[in-house]
Amino acid sequence: MKNRILYFLISIFALSGVTAAEIGTATRAEIARTLSRIVSREVTGGYQKAEPTYVRIQAVKASRSRVQIYTTVGLSYYPFREDNVQALRDSVRALLPQEFRKACIELYSDQREIGELVPLACRNAAQLKKQIAKRQIVPFTNRSERPLVTRLSAAATPSQGLSGRHIALWQSHGRYFDQTENRWKWQRSMLWQTCEDLYTQSYVLPYLVPMLENAGACVMLPRERDVQKFEVLADNDDARQYAEEGGWEPGGPGFAHLRQVYHTGENPFRDGTTRRTRTVTGDGTARAAWRADIPERGEYAVYVSYESTPESADDAHYTVHHLGGETSFAVNQTMGGGTWIYLGRFSFAPGHRGVVTLSNGSRTAGRILSADGVKIGGGYGNIARTPCDSLRLPDMEYIEETSGYPRFCEGARYWLQWAGFPEEVYTPKRNTDDYKDDYMSRAHWVNALMGGSERLPDSVGLRIPVDMALAFHSDAGVRDGDGIVGTLGIYYTRENRGKFAGGADRYRSRDLTDLVQAQVVEDIRRTFEPGWQRRGLWNRAYYEARVPGVPTMLLELLSHQNFADMRLGSDPRFKFLVSRAVYKGILQYISSQYGLPYVVQPLPVEAFAAEFTAADHVVLSWSPVMDPLEKSAAPTGYVVYTRVDDGGFDNGRQVDKPYLIVEQQPGRIYSYRVTAVNEGGESFPSETLAVCRMPDEKGRVLIVNGFDRVSAPLSERNDSLAGFRMEIDGGVPDRQDIAFVGAQHVFDLAQARCNVDSLALGACGCDFETDVIGGNTFDYPVLHGRSAAAAGYSFCSASLKAVERGEAALEQYPAVDLILGKQRTTTIGRGVQEPAFATFSPELQGVLRRYLADGGALFASGAYVVSDLWAGDAPDEGRAFAEEVLHCTLDTGRAAERGRVRVVTSHRDFSRGEYRFNDEYRPDRYIVEAPDALNPAGEGAFSVMRYVENGRTAGVACEAEGRTFVVGFPFESILSRTERDRLMRDALKFLLPEK
Length: 995
Hints:
There is one protein chain. The protein is α+β, with helices and mostly antiparallel strands. Helices cover about 20% and strands about 25% of the residues. It contains 18 helices and 54 strands. It has a 12-stranded mixed beta sheet with strand order 36-33-32-45-40-46-47-54-53-52-49-50, with helices on both faces. Strands 7-22-21-24-19-15 form a 6-stranded antiparallel beta sheet, with no helix packed on it. Helix 10 (about 510-525) runs antiparallel to helix 13 (about 570-595). The longest helix is centred in the middle third of the chain and has 23 residues, at about 570-595. It is globular. The N and C termini lie far apart (about 95 Å).
């Protein structure tokens, strides 16, 4: 209403001027059409179809020296930069009468001149610096000296990037208790094999959070971040779990786990006690140690809790003891007391063992060091719910119940209670509406984190200096045909008279929103989909955008209801790209607030190889990857991580060059992975390679990891049907899939706008909604190698690119084990980008043809090992390669539904018996839904094994010069280690006969 009155008064004033009338109705209409056309080229609206964004002129104030034009809010949806601002002004100038052509043109929308809507990160740096010095612009910054958590054991730490910054981040909704229906349910519909409650987590947890942490940020979430279903607690109040050395004394209240379930108002962080001691400089004199019963081997998140006081230490020295060794952290206990503080994810072996220690060694003596609890893993929800009194029916009995789901599935309201936050944070609706509590609690949680810090000094809270917040959502809406809904950004600027505490303008939220949205849209358009839509920048009072006391963005990435969006959005490569774009947008924003250089962490390295060199030594080599989207992402160094036998990875070793020679002990299996680093942070890790030198080796094998595929399920769209064909190719998750709920069962395009979720286009099952689905671990060389070593063979390993480029020479090895897993030629989305992940690229075909012609031996296994060469648009050269080099042809794809094969050959090198490979969804390995059936081809080729259910050939061997053994299912999918060892022994015995 205030805006309307303002524009009305401006209009009256403008019309009363002498010259304003000369900018007549026709000129104003032409200006409106021009601005609408410019904005609509970049910003679209509409749901059924893309619609233009209209800009209207609300008022004009003009003189010969200055023309001010006030427009509707549509103009503000445009991503303004200094160059396009000037271009817009010039476009308007050209439409004005001659006497105004030299006037200063000002365009206003959303109460600001459009030059003020250019993000600080995109403004002239020298001019901006002067404006900040004069306090004309106040950036949103915090002056805290030490961050909440510092990883002391890191081999490399970023000097730029997001080092020391604190980010609040959440992944939309979660499962909640509907009090009106007296049951737990998802907040969003199940479509396209997922649900928003889980879908946005598949960006935030595996990609975005690690990227931000690798850049140096402390990232806080209001939902459980660990998908591990086990949760183990160790607390100072239980002598079986906790021990002390040195002088400790009682502290204040702390965590204790006294209940199986918790009701509203019950706070586990008020049920126990804490312990205290004083810090000393140098080596510690007091120590606390926590032990825990780990139920099974796996990766677990580790959290700690403590009490914060005005005298607390800002460098509490925690050490996590895990399978890879010890990792140390400095935790700033002046902030964050009374909740779970995340340290990291670590591998643990099963059994009762020491997991965390705390030392009173510090850089400052005499500060208070607090010890309380340790939490390991995610676990299941333990908050019990029932309808409030006003919603209960008379004469009906109500029993409180928990969700029965893993905690990572639940909404923020329940995690926040478990994490010790007060009722005013997790139930602002006072226990009457869990749905509203969930989204409202996320906003209040941000302020609870900040309370007492520099930017929220008059509020009680955890004193964490939060720099920004981001809510990661997906939206609804269906577009006709292949239309894409695209990306929307939401922020709010009107709260608290448009200012944050400390004086920063709330339009810094627009800066953040603009930068993130622009980066997401630009990166998608430059890679997977040039037609990706930008839906605008909304300044609206959404609760999550309005309430937090920090610059906040609500990101609506895409429509989870629209097939064209989800066809891309189901692919791990798209999720990585988008998450990296969000990280880059955040980095641009925070760098601009602190006046720091903008340096992006590198991409993962490629062409990795690990090969024998001199006695007891191995040379590791790799190649950096230059990011075509970001020139600052060049690596300046690398970190090599090592795992020995069945242990975990260590803390890494930094090197300057893309190679390293390492020493090994005979008979032990060493695994390696590499990251690239620069001032902006650390990349994601490479694939994992493994090496073992057996003392009395029978021979040597090179294991080639040709399985680098991650992808969405096979999708198709025609005139009547659209969807994902899981029975043909269910895709390959990146490590694991935490968003898959069940296979699609409605494909009819006529149901695109059906209002019944279970009958709508894209409707799917829900039988896997709580399961973690296994994918490509990029760690298969060690599994293959372990079986080769059990057979007495030494082995090295190399990536596919290293072999294709000739950087790993096959001729040095008598036998090659080629891992093809679920490698298969794959497109993404509607196929704008070239297909990827062919089983046998032309380069690989050439390398293998030459190697086998020279007497080499090949063991190749994969679900699409031959059918990929027989695909409809595959070149004929691939089929000739299969017949002449692999000595087999395709019988059929999708050869079996049950993963059982039986050895049928009488050849002396192959043992009789059966093998079982994985044909179902499991958390620890990928499913093989469509294995290949083969036919022997050429002299010396014969069937080795057949699928039990139909007798089709599952494996073909050939005794011709250049021996081969090709299997139509992946070796690593065999469930039993004993069976894998037997098959590898037989394969190598056949390929490398004794002379």
